[in-house]
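Two entries, shown back to back:
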Amino acid sequence: MSHTAISRPRTVVSCTLLVIALCAGITACGSDGNPLSHRPYDAADQISFNAPLEGREKADPDKPLEVVAEDSDGRITDVTAHDAAGRYVAGELAADGRRWHSTSPLAANASYTVRVSTEDEDGAPGRKVLTFDTGKPTTQKRLDVTFGPKAGTYGVGQPITAELSRPVKDRSQRAVVERALKVSSMPATDGAWHWVDDKKLHYRPKDYWPAQATIQVRSNLEGIKIGDRVRGGKAKPLTINTADKVIAVTDAAAHQMTVYKNDEIVRQIPVTTGMPGYDTRNGVKVVLAKEGTVRMTSASIGASDFYDLIVHHSVRVTNSGEYVHAAPWSVGSQGYANVSHGCTGMSTENAAWFYENIREGDIVKVINSGGDSMPAFGNGFGDWNLEWKQWRTGSALTAGTPEGPTPADRARLRPQSA
C-alpha cells in the first residue's frame, strides 16, 4: 500500500493501518479569547494518510482502520466512517483521545468517508473529511442470505427466517452475520435473531408482531469479511405485512376452541383432539399453510387401526402432519371426547369458517392436552414456546450459547394425522 502526504512534506512510517497524524499547534481563539467561538479549523496540513486518497489506488479491505493523534498536544474527539451504502464502521476511541481503531470489518469494493474531529491544546476544534475506496477481497468464498417467508400478508405470529448458503459455527463470525441482518417494523417493536443451527436463523419480537404492521428485512453483509476467505454476498430484501391479530386457543380437556380476533372472542367451536397415545401437542403453533383437501392415511403415522380419508378445509400447523380440519365422522364426539390421531377436528361448517378466517402466520395454541410440548424448532414454527430470556440466549450478540433443537425436542417430532 502506497503512502500519500497531504499539504506538507513529512516522513511517514510504513505500517498496515490507516494512520491520521493530528498535530496541535493551530489555535482558533477569537477576540473574546474563547477557542470554541470560531468554526473548526481545517486540519488538512496536519494529516498524513498511508492509504490511497480520493479514488486513486484501492485500499486493502482486510486491513483495519486506525486513527492516531501523534502530537502530544492534540487529541481525537470523534471519528465516524461509513460507506456509500450507509453502513457505519464500528470503532473504539481510547480514553486519552490518542487512538481510534475500527472494531468491525470493512467491506470490499466500497467507497468510504471518514470524518475526524480533533482539538488542540487550547481546546480549538479541528475537522477533516477523507475519502477512500477499498479494492477486491483476497477471499474467494461467498456467504449468501435468503430471507423468508415470501413477500405477502401474514398473521402476527409469523417468524422471519434467514437461510445461509454456508455454515457459520464460530460465535464471533455469527456476531458479524447477525449484526448485518436488519429487521425493522412499523409500528416499531423489539426483537432478536436466534440461531436455530449453523445455517439458519429465526427472528421474532418479544411478543407477537403488532397487527397491521409493515416489516422490512435487509442484509448489510455484502462485501463484509466474515471469516477466513469468506465474505458476505448479496441478499434480496424482504417486506411483509401483518393482518389482524388472530389466535385460536384449543382447550383439549374442555374439547373446545376459542377464536380471538384483536383480543375479542369471535367464535367458539366444539372440537375433538388426539386420543390417548396420539395426544395433540401442547403449546403455540404457527399456521404453516392452508392446504384445503388432503388425503390422510394410517400408514403416514404407523397407526394400528386402519384409515384412509379425504379431509377437507385442512390447515397445517406442524411439518409432521398435525392439522386443524373438518371431521364429519366424529361430530358426535366433538365437544365431549378426544378421538382423533392428533389433529384438531370439527364439523364441516365450523371447519369452513375456520379455513376462511385463518391465514398463514396466525396462532393456534393447544392447552390441557396429555401430549408433549411443541418443540421450538424442527417441526414447524414453535418459536413462541421459548420465553424471551431463552430466545435471547440464541443470539450471538447477547449473553448465552446459541441453541438449536435438543435431543428431547427431536424425540417429540413423531408425525400425527387425522
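entry 2 starts here
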Amino acid sequence: MDKIPQNPEAEKAVLGSMIVNEKSRIEALAVLNEDDFCCGNNNNQTHRNIFHAIYALNSSGKIIDLSSIADELNNHMHVMEDELDYLIELTDAFVGEKHALQHINMVRDLGLLRRLLNELRAITRDYNDKPISSVTDFVGEAERRILDITKARRVSGFRAAGEIAEIITNKLLATKQEGKSANAVTGLDTGFSNLNKLTLGLQPGTLCILAARPSVGKTTFAINIAYNVAANTGKTVAFFSLEMAAEEIVKKMLSQKAKVLGSKLSTGNLTENDWIALSEAKNSIKKIKILIDDTSAAKINDIRTKAQKLMREDDNLGLIVIDYMGLITTSMRTDNRQAEVAEISRSLKALARELNIPVLCLCQLSRASEIRPDHRPILSDLRDSGNIEQDADQVMFIFRPNYQKYDAMNQEGSENGDNTNSQEKDVDENGQEIREEYKKQEESQVILAKNRNGQVGVVYYKFFPSISLFMPIEKPSHNFNPPVKEKKGK
C-alpha cells in the first residue's frame, strides 16, 4: 500500500485555530483549500468538510463559531451528529497564533506533495495505457502537469510598497557610494557601451528580441553579446542554436577574438601570426562559460526543460540566447503558425521570469521592410505574430543600409567614399589596430524600437563581416536617414 503524506495532528491544530482565532483563520484561508486536508475522526472527509464549512461561512460574511459551523455542516452538508461533536475536540487543539502558522504551512506542503504524487501516478498510468507517438511531447506534457502543481508552492504574497521603496533607495545609495554614474549598468553588461546607455544592460526576467532580415548579422551580434556577457560578468551563457552548428558558432567567436578571417578558419590557410592570435583567442574562450545546444528544430518544451535543468545544475546561469524563433516548434496540432508563435513568445517570456534572467531571442523580419523606400525596419515587420511585440520587454533591429541597398544610401556612400579605403586607423575594443586586410566594413545601426522600462533610440556600429565583429562608434559618417526620392511621373 502506498504511503500517504499526512499529519492528522497538524490538520487538527489548523482547524482548531481557525475556529477560535480570527487571525489564524485568515492566514489559513489565504493559503489552504479543502484538498489540503485528508484526515478526520471516522473518515478521511471530516477535516475537509469542516474546512469547507468555515470557508462557506466566511464567503457569506457570517459569524464563525462552533454553533454556526455545526449548523453549516448539518443543514448544508448533511454531516452525521458524531462529527459535530468532533468540533469541540478540535478547539482544544489550538496551539497559539505562532505555532498555528507553522502547522498551516505544514498542511499546505503535505497537500501539495499528495497532489504531486497523484499526478505522477496518473502520468505513469497514461504511459502504461496509452500509445506514445512522441516521447518529447509526452515528457513536455508531463512537465507541464507537474509544474502546474509545484508552481503553487512559489506563489508570493503581498509586499508593502514602503518596504520595496526602502530596498530601492538603499540600492541607489549603494550605487552612489560606489561612485557609479547614473548610466551605470544595472543588468548584464553587453560589452557595448552605447547599447548599455539605453538599456542599462540586459535586465533580469526580461525577453529581448533581436530582429533583422536574413544575413544582416543577427547571429554575429548575438554571439558578440554572449561572449561579452560571459567575459565581463563571469556568468554562464546558454546558447540555443537551431540553425547553425556549434562549431560554426565557436568559429565566429575565434574569428572575432583573434581578428582572423573566417574564411581562413574554414580553409586552414593560416599564417604564423594567425596561429598565435588563434591560440590566444582559444585560451580566452576556455576561461569563460558559454554552453551551446545546436539541436535543430527544437520544441519550446525542450528549450524550457533544458534551461530549467541547467539552472538547477548551475545557479550562475546569467543569459539565454536563442537563434532563432522561426525555427522553434510546438506540440500544438494546428496549421496556424501565428498561434504557434504566440505560444512560443509567451513561453519564452514566462521562462525569463521563472528563471529571473534575460532571454535574448533572435527573430526574422518579414519582407514588408523591403517594400518601403528606405528599408528601415519597424515593429510591425516582426514576422508571424503581433504577440512578439506584446510579450517582449525590448525589441532591437539590426539595420545595414549599404547591405540592404537602397539608391539614396548608395549615392550618399559614393559622395563620402567607402570606409574600406579610409586612412583612419581602426582599432578594436582593446585599442589594438585592426590590420589592413580586415578593413572590409560597413556602418550599421541597432535600433532599439521598444524598451518597456527605459528609453528607445539608435546606436551605431562598424560591422566587420569577415571577422564577425561589431564595434560601437559614436556617430556614423554616412547619413543613415537620407531623403526618399520622389517617384518620377509617367
